[in-house]
Structures are given as C-alpha cells and as structure tokens.
Here is the input.
Amino acid sequence: MSVKALYDNYHGEVADAVANFNGNILVYVLWDGNLLYGAPGTLQVAPDMPFGEFRDQALSPAYAGHPRWPGVDWQTVTWNLDGRDITPQPPRTLAALGVGHKSMVRFRTPDTLTRLP
Here is the structure.
C-alpha cells in the first residue's frame, strides 16, 4: 500500500518494489465476506502463472485450513480484480488477466456473508 511521507522530498528505497522479487509479483488476495479472513493475504507468484494454477496451487495452501475450502464450487465463485469484476479462464495467465504487482484479487463464494447481522 502507498505511504505518503510527512515531509517534502523524502527519498527512500522501496523494499517491496517489483525489482526485488526476481521476476515474481506480490498479489493481495481476500476471500471476500468470509469472517475468518478480515484482511487480505499476500502471495508472491509468477505473472505468467495460469489462473488455474494460481487458484489451485497458490490460493489452496493459503485457505486450506478453512473447513469449507474443499467444497468450494468454482463455477459459482465471483471474482474481482482491482475493483472490477472479472471472469477468469483457468488457462489465461495472471498477466493476461491484468493482475500486476500489488494487485488485489477478491473472490466470493455464494455461502459467505454479505454483511454482519
């Protein structure tokens, strides 16, 4: 996330610049509406990773501890990338879908809450 210095002409090294990740990118991910995950997690992935691999090999380890994870029906999940709804196809790469360094990927399953009661 961006931070604004409290004084003018601040110059410092950006520790999370894309150049520091050996060709990979950081992607923020949130299971939207799921109360067990109150904040996004960050994954380091290759931009040429197909979306299906991202879902199965990057998201699965991050969310495998959730009891509903094994039963997620991917045909019913809705996706959002940087504030816009998307319908990703599993063979397309993250870069082809528009996922960039520090992009926010949100997904919602039909059984998650839309708001607190």
In short: Helices lie at 51-63, 94-97.
